[in-house]
Amino acid sequence: MTRLGRGFSYTVQKDAVSPVSADVVFASSRFPRYRIGANNQIVEVKEDTDVGPTKEMVARETALLVEQQQRLSVRDLASKFEKGLAAATKLSDEARLKEAASLEKHVILKKLRDALEALRGRVAAKNKDDVVEAITIVESLTIQLTQREGELVQQKAEVKKLATFLKQASEDAKKLVDEERAFSRSEIENARAAVQRVEEALQEHERMSRALGKQDLDELMKEVQEARRIKMLHQPSRVMDMEHEVRALRIKLAEKSKHSLQLRKELAISKKSDENTPLYEMDGTEALGSCLLIYPCSDIAPNLSECTIQWYRSTSEGGKKELISGATKAAYAPEPFDVGRTLQADISTNDQTVTVTTSAPIDPAPGLGNYVEALVRRHDTEFSVVLIQMNGVDHPSESIHVLHIGKMRIKLCKGKTTISKEYYSNSMQICGMRGGGNASAQAVYWQAKTEVSFILAFESERERNAAMMLARRFAFDCNIMLGGPDDRCAAGIY
Is residue 222 packed enough to be buried (19+ CB in 10 Å), middle (13-18) or exposed (0-12)? Predict the structure, then answer.
């Protein structure tokens, strides 16, 4: 049995282990540390490396880029992709260094195993078991190192994919930046051109405004000078002279009409004086805007309250009489339908009927036609009225209402409240108030629709007749013949 001395072990190990080549480059300055884990497994004590944190940083940056893609600008997105690409390049370099270090470990383990195999044949049986255990540990380390190399290869492939993706994304981001930059430049140029055009238009408008303002100022100065001259001379204008003349002519015409009517009545009375004295006579101007009144002219004439009265209209040639529905009082105010026609009233008692007739057809109101033609040009005309009755019931308030007569409809309002608004239809009716009374010449009966009616009082006879003529004109344009109850509207629109 061979006896080993104290220096044998060192000598044998020195001779058995071949020296490490000088051209080998170690990634670390110390040998890896190992320990025996559960089930006698060799576990390597992992050293702190920057590969894991670097990979996690790249993953976090990528996730952050994906989340903020919608709210980052194109330039910021390109910067993020460039940072991610730099991190991926760094990770690839570290993986390459890790691969070189793994290759160095393989070389060291191979040399260590060869040294242990050489030592196993030279040691005694007691130390031989230790050598065999050391060889087993080295083989286990070799297997774990191979597995680690596989993981490193897989990580390297993933890093390459990520680097390729980030590189492509960075290039796309750069393209987007270039496109956005070109588009922005184009928009800036267009905006500059638009601003220049607006400035030119404003300058042109300012020049025109100055020219027009100077012209208007000159005209205004001329008008002021003319007004001052007229004021100094204390002379009325030509328009005022014409208005005074027209007013005087209207007064004279009304006086002549009354005088002519009086002469006609006196002539008729003188012709009938030899025959019989009439029981009733008609008083009033036989023209639109007046009110005709029947009165007894004989002591033997029955009281009108005990008689039945019915008004009719007929042509001047003595044509067929047309009954005026609702006109059953002693007073009647002619309306536009009566112009050019003769009015007559039948006063019936128990034993006889007396007929009273106008001496001539009803004359139109002076200037009313031109006034209505001027109103027709408007889209909507307002008349101030007082609501007398609503649906046959007297209205307690005498507040002012507004009647709107438009091209398509008639509307009655009180302030901002709409009482009635109806379009022209066959159920609508409008005519003068035929129930008698002192205000009948200024009142109108308006049936907006079935079971909805109003009696409205206007400011003057002229406004009342103009409102009826205007409404019938607009209704006629809508193919609606607007009239009163039981009126035959085919005779005309007025």
Answer: exposed
Q: Mean pLDDT, to the nearest integer, of 158-183? A: 80
Checking 32-37 for CB contacts under 8 A at 24+ apart, the result is 32/105, 34/137, 34/141
Least confident stretch, 13-22, 50-59, 133-142, 391-400: 13-22
Highest-confidence segment of 23-37, 154-168, 293-307, 438-452:
438-452
Residues 6 or more apart whose Cβ sits within 8 Å of residue 211:
none
* The residue type at 65: L
Which of 393, 485, 389, 364 minimizes the C-alpha distance to 432? Answer: 485
Instruction: Assign 383 to helix, strand or coil.
Output: strand
Q: With cut-offs at 50, 70 and 90, classify the pLDDT of residue 5.
A: very low
Q: What distance in Å separates the CA atoms of residue 92 and residue 114, rounded to the nearest whole number?
A: 33
Determine the residue type at 271.
K
Tens digits of residue pLDDT in 389-418: 899 888 887 788 999 999 999 999 998 899
Measured distance CA(464)–CA(405) in Å, rounded: 12
CA distance 242 to 259: 25
CA distance 456 to 203: 57
Distance, CA of 325 to CA of 82 (rounded, Å)? 98
Cα–Cα dist 412/420, whole Å: 5
Count CB neighbours of 8 within 10 A.
Answer: 13
Task: Report the percent of the chain where pLDDT is more than 90.
Answer: 17
Q: What pTM did the predictor assign?
A: 0.47
> Is the pLDDT assigned to residue 282 strictly greater than 50?
yes
Q: Which two tokens stand for residue 346?
A: 């039948």
The one-character DSSP state at 7 is T
- The pLDDT tens digits of the residues spanning 437-469 come to 767 888 999 999 988 999 999 998 999 999 999
- Residue 119 one-letter amino acid: L
Which H, E and C letters describe 99-145, residue by residue? HHHHHHHHHHHHHHHHHHHHHHCCCCHHHHHHHHHHHHHHHHHHHHH
Q: Which alpha helices (H) appear in 304-410, and where do they start and end? A: 368-376
Pairing type for strands 280-283 and 42-44 reads unpaired
